[in-house]
Amino acid sequence: xxxxxxxxxxxxxxxxxxxxxxxxxxxxxxxxxxxxxxxxxxxxxxxxxxxxxxxxxxxxxxxxxxxxxxxxxxxxxxxxxxxxxxxxxxxxxxxxxxxxxxxxxxxxxxxxxxxxxxxxxxxxxxxxxxxxxxxxxxxxxxxxxxxxxxxxxxxxxxxxxxxxxxxxxxxxxxxxxxxxxxxxxxxxxxxxxxxxxxxxxxxxxxxxxxxxxxxxxxxxxxxxxxxxxxxxxxxxxxxxxxxxxxxxxxxxxxxxxxxxxxxxxxxxxxxxxxxxxxxxxxxxxxxxxxxxxxxxxxxxxxxxxxxxxxxxxxxxxxxxxxxxxxxxxxxxxxxxxxxxxxxxxxxxxxxxxxxxxxxxxxxxxxxxxxxxxxxxxxxxxxxxxxxxxxxxxxxxxxxxxxxxxxxxxxxxxxxxxxxxxxxxxxxxxxxxxxxxxxxxxxxxxxxxxxxxxxxxxxxxxxxxxxxxxxxxxxxxxxxxxxxxxxxxxxxxxxxxxxxxxxxxxxxxxxxxxxxxxxxxxxxxxxxxxxxxxxxxxxxxxxxxxxxxxxxxxxxxxxxxxxxxxxxxxxxxxxxxxxxxxxxxxxxxxxxxxxxxxxxxxxxxxxxxxxxxxxxxxxxxxxxx
Length: 624
Ligand code: COA
Ligand code: AMP
What we know:
By secondary structure, this protein is α/β, with parallel strands linked by helices. The strands form ten sheets. It has a seven-stranded mixed beta sheet with strand order 5-4-17-16-18-19-20, sandwiched between helices. A hairpin with a 2-residue loop joins strand 9 and strand 10 (about 170-175). Helix 3 runs parallel beside helix 10 (about 285-295), helix 9 (about 255-265) crosses helix 10 and helix 12 (about 335-345) crosses helix 13. The mean pLDDT is about 95. Adenosine monophosphate binds near residues 388 and 478. Coenzyme A binds next to strand 9 and helix 12.
């Protein structure tokens, strides 16, 4: 089948289309009904189906004869460890950890927060929740205690699963003190905290609340997959929005399994037995979809890499992993290859490894800049495929659909809408823009399976953020255009979300932290272009009358505060004191022009500004 036929069928006959795709997975009770509209303006996929996501990921592979195939390879240059688990071994670990959770009272629908580094136990814990019908919420290990506390308060977990430490290159980061502080700060108190002790650090356990992973596993009884409704939540994954409070994106079980299984073929061209490596972190959506669930749904071998693209030990790290494990498909964020290119511009290290197993390179998470695209093309000779998606969608909204038809790539474009996503570029009233003209990138409802079903505990926020801005559409928050050949180009966020080294962060949240400093009257944080990380946050700060603090001292304090409240990954390293902030006459800060000035782009004085002379001061501060 060609792409156009497949795409048209997905839009014109979505129920028939997704009924076919649903046949590719093992259901406990296959759905009769495919789509049911709900009164929140959205709807449910496969509402009467019964499924268990862990069964689809693991047991179904054993039933299909893949029990002895490697399911998971753990490669950790930071601890000099390699381990691999067959589908049978992985199922055993997961079923027993599900027994541990059940022993602690975790029942279907209960939430479990997983705050773990990139170790196999993180994957066991996620799949164990799925096996029980419990809802996991993985929190990226780079987030500070406060961020974890916010998520504990919102998700109200019965149990937290953590490890004694994470390892960042050679720096050991104890996790348990962060978890203890987060529980102290959170309004909700989990009943149990299960801790995996790593050799590098031993965490102190609080009697009555904390349990040791290994001790519990030693006496655990394996449990079988628990049937759940296709529409029951599988996980909550928090992502940054425009306000300080992160949004808990909720993903269901049935739609997720069907969509991810389909995406493995469509987007990546993967087959059972292939080795699939998403070089990301289980704390991000890429890790959920393509380290854990997607490759296992497809019967692939997946790689869990506890390392960096550079420094563990050098810029040849990715090529070494490809060689050692015979990786077929590598997926990462452009920033990772920018880091490699910076340290090894001529790709000399690439030449020292045998990477002939690699079929394609996939990039997503931020804009793929043409320089990185060209560098990869030139030095690897491989197809370099950009694809665009979000935490909210869980799989690619636009891709080069290699599983059905491979299109010539155009640098800067994520190629075509994936079947199921009726992507349109519209003006704020929802009217289509002509080809080549920039507007808001939106998806005509309904969204295909696998996308968010609501915001955890706040359906109103779901409607307000995604459905209400452009009636009849899902509003992506990204701007872009579609060219005359139908290629989609994503140009960047139209809101206050920024992308730092492929990590999605909210400038609004940073502003809340900066504004809480006693000397700060008002502030504004914008994302400025950065050669390595894509964007980095920069703060402009207005002091309170009478505040006498030295600007350098203030900058240091603000940097520490953002690190402490949000985490080191925010990369907040610059805060400048200014005399005034540029505002409209009605008092709104003109962030767009500040961003343009920070980036050294051309800028025009906005007609709404109250005092244009402020812009010259800001120009000088940024570029002196
Ligand atoms: N736990 C604790 N701290 C973490 C962390 C984690 N899981 N991940 C990052 N950090 C910390 C780092 O130690 C660093 O702290 P420092 O300021 O004390 O040095 C800070 O957060 C920034 O880290 P990072 O973004 O990794 O910057 P870097 O300059 O060390 O490395 C890159 C640059 C490009 C190599 C790195 O950002 C990278 O690997 N990027 C790819 C990320 C990715 O895959 N994103 C896509 C998700 S799809
Ligand atoms: P996240 O939810 O963390 O995956 O971040 C999603 C955001 O990253 C999107 O809204 C885009 O702004 C950006 N993004 C992801 N993939 C791409 C891509 N291929 N091209 C351009 N921007 C991208």
